[in-house]
């Protein structure tokens, strides 16, 4: 059975706290693992969460502030130490190439694994696999930042009552799926579109077009909510979102499951983020993230 879940490795903004590590998020999507924003300490958090270097296929960095990228050095060296048998692709803002280079070669080690560098410099698709298309959208932060979105291709859902009405059963069902028609019966006659699942990862940003584009129709949205609404001025000044702003984006985008994360150390009551998100009118499933949490991608409708 395929597994689709988010493993939360860290949830702090700027600095780690007693209870929150720097950022780090692993998306398990069928047989692949995509690591987002590995901040300082990510390698150890992976160990605590039962995530191995072999589980990684892609690394996606939104921007080169330390809480989103300082863990790159350790993760890349662990990939090489463990001799991961497959190639790994790294996506990150092209303007931060010098930072990626420094982190990739921060200390001496033996390179045994190919890490393909695929820097991002514009909105649009980055990769297409049988399971998903990966896109990037520019965000609004003091340094160049991109959010990421996975979209599964639409499929077909067979309708048993219609199959029975047309007398199609057994091996003929598979034949109809492969060939598109059988004895005058088309695939459209006995099935309906099954919308592909959608996931988005939105970190440090003010409200902007990219935020809304990434969130649109998501089954699972992971989004920063560094500040509470009473500190909206600070959020705008430093290029961040509040809990209410993030929830309003999710509400308007039709998000099914909202995961709030990247919390400022100034706040001690996580429940206040949930209260403000609900006050903003978001009625879907809501999670205020904590370290080592696992969040399943919602089942298809």
Give a topology summary.
Layout: E1 4-10, E2 24-29, E3 32-36, H1 42-49, E4 58-60, H2 66-69, H3 72-81, E5 88-91, H4 97-104, E6 115-117, E7 124-128, E8 133-138, E9 146-151, E10 155-158, H5 160-165, H6 171-179, E11 181-182, E12 185-186, H7 187-190, E13 191-194, E14 198-202, H8 209-215, E15 220-224, H9 232-238, H10 243-253, E16 257-261, H11 271-279, E17 285-288, E18 294-296
Helix pairs in contact: 3-4, 10-11
Explain what you see:
This protein starts with a strand and ends in a 5-residue tail after the last strand. The longest helix is centred in the last third of the chain and has 11 residues, at 243-253. The protein has helices at 42-49, 66-69, 72-81, 97-104, 160-165, 171-179, 187-190, 209-215, 232-238, 243-253, 271-279, and strands spanning 4-10, 24-29, 32-36, 58-60, 88-91, 115-117, 124-128, 133-138, 146-151, 155-158, 181-182, 185-186, 191-194, 198-202, 220-224, 257-261, 285-288, 294-296. Strand 3, helix 1 and strand 4 form a beta-alpha-beta unit. It has 301 residues and is of the alpha/beta class.
């Amino acid at each position: 059975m395929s597994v689709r879940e988010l493993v939360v490795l860290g949830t702090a903004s700027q600095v780690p706290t007693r209870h929150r590590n720097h950022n780090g998020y692993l998306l398990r999507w069928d047989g692949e693992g995509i690591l987002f924003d590995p901040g300082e300490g990510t390698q150890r958090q992976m160990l605590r969460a039962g995530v191995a270097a072999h589980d990684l296929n892609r690394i996606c960095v939104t921007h080169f502030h330390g809480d989103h990228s300082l863990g790159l050095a350790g993760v890349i060296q662990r990939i090489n130490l463990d001799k991961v048998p497959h190639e790994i692709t790294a996506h990150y803002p092209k303007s931060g190439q010098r930072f990626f280079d420094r982190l990739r070669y921060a200390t001496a080690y033996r390179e045994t694994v190919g890490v393909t560098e695929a820097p991002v410099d514009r909105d649009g698709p980055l990769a297409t696999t049988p399971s998903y298309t990966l896109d990037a959208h520019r965000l609004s932060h003091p340094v160049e930042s991109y959010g990421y979105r996975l979209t599964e291709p639409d499929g077909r859902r067979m309708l048993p009552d219609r199959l029975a009405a047309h007398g199609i059963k057994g091996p003929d069902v598979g034949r109809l799926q492969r060939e598109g028609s059988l004895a005058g019966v088309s695939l459209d006659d006995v099935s309906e579109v099954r919308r592909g699942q959608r996931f988005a990862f939105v970190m440090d940003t003010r409200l902007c077009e990219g935020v809304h584009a990434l969130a649109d129709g998501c089954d699972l949205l992971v989004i920063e909510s560094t500040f509470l609404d009473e500190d909206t001025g600070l959020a705008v000044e430093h290029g961040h979102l509040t809990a209410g702003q993030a929830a309003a984006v999710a509400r308007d985008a039709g998000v099914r499951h909202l995961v709030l994360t990247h919390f400022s150390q100034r706040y001690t009551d996580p429940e206040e983020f949930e209260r403000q998100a609900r006050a903003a009118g978001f009625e879907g499933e809501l999670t205020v993230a904590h370290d080592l949490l696992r969040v399943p991608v919602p089942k298809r409708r």
